[in-house]
């Protein structure tokens, strides 16, 4: 009997633990998951600084300046970014200042370069209103003691920059799970081999390697095994240094569905054998010595959907993420879905914002062995179990194929 999807998800999540942590050079941390809370030990900016090229002045002295009534000041210094002023700004004086340079003592505002005219060491201020606003104040973005990033944060470009600002040269991150991928089936050949009658190229391993990496894990492609228990078991044993082992093919009921025999041979404890979803109902899951073993269908669409619903959340948990699920929204079908279904069905779709709300169009070619629709899909339409054919306009649940 097929297990409910939600129960299977819970069982797999309960079977794995979060990975250990390690320090990595910041340059290698993009898309890694932070394993520590980062608290600012500095103010940022660390000093009052200029946001533009111009002149540091006493704001009240120039606030009435206009093109027909300029205020003339004597330039006493030129402050480049990375240097500090040697003199203070006094009434009747100004300092030339570059973007990012510290505001000199005595200055209370900055005039942009375009609003000045220079003659020797005399600078004429042509527009002085708002000069006091042209200062980036110390600590206006970050204050000492402020929590900036928390454990479980996926390090995106902004986090990379902020870690650099705070001097975190080697952040503490979670080790990425290692996932072994094995394709089974005597009909399979390597991607670089010429096709001969009766053979097809191994596409599943490459498809799943992309899904593994998108989930924050490391993919290790171990190749293809024919329909032979010993040959499959040998490749599975090569995955001993991996945290998860995924096979495709040989997971359903049939003369050449051998993953159950492989599990028995290797002493893998079976958690479940079928999950009530379409496509991808044949899923054989087991554990041995705290490692997870998953047998997926050999049909590409079925393998991809099963991975998405069952394996991806597991890898996200292991990677240290705090959110394991894709965003879900409500949308209306832009075209009818003509099939009735018993088990919950996941349909590749294109989702977009229409004038009256979100629309989702099921893509063509949804067969278990078909992969082409996955190229254009940015969403999965969820068809409830025991659903009749659905007309256009029906409100449905849609899983967006973006990170949550």
Structure description:
Keywords: Magnesium, Metal-binding, Molybdenum, Molybdenum cofactor biosynthesis, Transferase. Belongs to the MoeA family. GO terms for molecular function: metal ion binding; molybdopterin molybdotransferase activity. It is an enzyme of class 2 (transferase). It catalyses: adenylyl-molybdopterin + molybdate = Mo-molybdopterin + AMP + H(+). With 404 residues, this protein is of the alpha/beta class. It has 4 domains: 5-19 and 176-318, MoaB/Mog-like domain (Molybdenum Cofactor Biosythetic Enzyme, Chain A, 3-Layer(aba) Sandwich), CATH 3.40.980; 21-44 and 140-174, Alpha-Beta Complex (Molybdopterin biosynthesis moea protein, domain 2), CATH 3.90.105; 54-133, Molybdopterin biosynthesis moeA protein, domain 3; 328-400, MoeA, C-terminal, domain IV (Beta-clip, Beta Barrel). Helices cover 19% and strands 30% of the residues. It contains 8 helices and 24 strands. It has helices at 5-14, 59-62, 157-165, 204-214, 229-238, 259-266, 300-318, 373-376; strands spanning 21-23, 38-39, 54-57, 71-79, 93-97, 109-112, 116-119, 122-125, 147-149, 172-174, 178-184, 188-189, 200-201, 218-225, 244-248, 269-274, 277-278, 282-288, 291-296, 328-333, 344-354, 357-362, 379-383, 395-400. Strands 6-3-5-4-8-7 form a 6-stranded mixed beta sheet. A 6-stranded mixed beta sheet has the order 14-11-15-19-18-16, sandwiched between helices. α1 (5-14) crosses α7, α4 (204-214) runs parallel beside α7 and α5 packs across α6 (259-266). The longest helix is centred in the last third of the chain and has 19 residues, at 300-318. It is elongated, with a radius of gyration of 31 Å. The two termini are 32 Å apart. The mean pLDDT is 93.
């Amino acid at each position: 009997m097929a297990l409910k999807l939600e129960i299977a998800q819970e069982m797999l999540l309960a079977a794995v633990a979060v990975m250990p942590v390690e320090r990595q050079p910041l340059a290698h941390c993009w898309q890694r998951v932070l394993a520590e809370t980062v608290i600012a030990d500095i103010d940022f900016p660390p000093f009052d600084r200029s946001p533009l090229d111009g002149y540091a002045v006493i704001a009240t002295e120039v606030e009435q300046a206009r093109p027909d009534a300029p205020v003339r000041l004597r330039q006493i210094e030129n402050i480049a970014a990375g240097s500090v002023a040697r003199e203070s700004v006094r009434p009747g004086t100004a300092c030339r200042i570059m973007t990012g340079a510290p505001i000199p003592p005595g200055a209370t505002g900055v005039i942009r370069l375009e609003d000045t005219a220079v003659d020797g060491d005399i600078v004429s201020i042509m527009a002085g209103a708002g000069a006091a606003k042209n200062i980036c104040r110390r600590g206006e973005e970050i204050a000492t003691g402020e929590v900036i990033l928390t454990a479980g944060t996926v390090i995106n470009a902004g986090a990379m920059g902020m870690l650099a600002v705070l001097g975190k040269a080697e952040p503490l991150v979670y080790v990425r799970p290692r996932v072994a991928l094995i394709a089974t089936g005597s009909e399979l050949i390597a991607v670089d081999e010429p096709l001969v009658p009766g053979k097809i190229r191994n596409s599943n391993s490459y498809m799943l390697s992309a899904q593994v990496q998108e989930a924050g894990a490391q993919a290790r492609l171990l190749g293809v095994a024919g329909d032979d228990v010993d040959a499959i078991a040998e490749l599975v044993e090569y995955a001993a240094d991996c945290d998860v082992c995924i096979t495709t093919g040989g997971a359903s009921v049939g003369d050449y569905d051998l993953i159950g025999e492989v599990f028995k041979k290797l002493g893998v404890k079976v958690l479940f054998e079928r999950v009530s979803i379409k496509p991808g109902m044949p899923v054989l899951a087991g554990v041995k010595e705290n490692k997870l073993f998953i047998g997926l269908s050999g049909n590409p669409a079925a393998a991809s959907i099963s991975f998405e619903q069952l394996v991806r959340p597991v890898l996200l948990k292991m990677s240290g993420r705090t959110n394991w699920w894709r965003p879900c929204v409500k949308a209306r079908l832009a075209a009818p879905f003509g099939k009735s279904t018993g088990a919950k069905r996941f349909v590749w779709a294109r989702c977009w914002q229409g004038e009256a709300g979100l629309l989702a169009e099921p893509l063509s070619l949804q067969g278990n062995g078909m992969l082409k629709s996955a190229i254009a899909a940015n969403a999965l339409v969820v068809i409830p179990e025991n659903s009749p054919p659905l007309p256009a306009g029906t409100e449905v649940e849609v899983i967006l194929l973006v990170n949550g």
